[in-house]
Amino acid sequence: MKANELDNNASLGIVALISRLLMSAIFIWAGFGKLTAAAGTTAYFTKIGLPAPSLVYLLAVTVELGGGILMLLGLFTRPAAIVLGLWCIGTALVGHSDFGDRNMQIHFMKNLTMAGGFAYVVLLGAGGFSLDALLGRRNELTTA
């Protein structure tokens, strides 16, 4: 491998690491917030009419906190990205679809944008600086 190819691969790995950090932060923060405010979160889920709010609470904490941590570490990155991308679409439709509210419109579009970002993670993988790469999973970024 030529020196400039190695530098390029290292650069791609660093960009992927920074991207995973940025994408995971909102989920880790939100999941931890839900974990530490179980009663309030469950009450909110009840208020907006979700069925089985206690189960939805457990699902939300698991997906957001667990998925965010997996994304940050780059472990099971592609499956985590699929789950988080679908989660973003689902929460956009369920929790941010009051289009008469400008704030909800912004959150709806933010969630769809994040789902698009996760589609790229599914396509490209975790990059070289990840547990997936360390464990030999085929998740390195490729240059096509």
Q: How would you describe this structure in keywords?
A:
mainly alpha; 144 residues; disordered N terminus; globular; 6 helices
**How would you state the average pLDDT, rounded?**
90
Order of helices and strands: HHHHHH
**Straight-line distance between termini:** 16 Å
Uncertain runs are: 1-7, 139-144
What structural class results from the helix and strand content?
mainly alpha
**DSSP summary, beta strand count:** 0
Reported for the largest beta sheet, the result is: none
Specify Rg, calculated over alpha carbons: 17 Å
Domain module tally: 1
Strand content: under 5%
Task: Describe the model.
There is one protein chain. The chain has 144 residues and is mostly helical. The protein has one domain. It is 76% helix and 0% strand. The chain is built from six helices and no strands. It is globular and about 50 Å long. 28% of the residues are buried. Mean pLDDT is 90; it is low at 1-7 and 139-144.
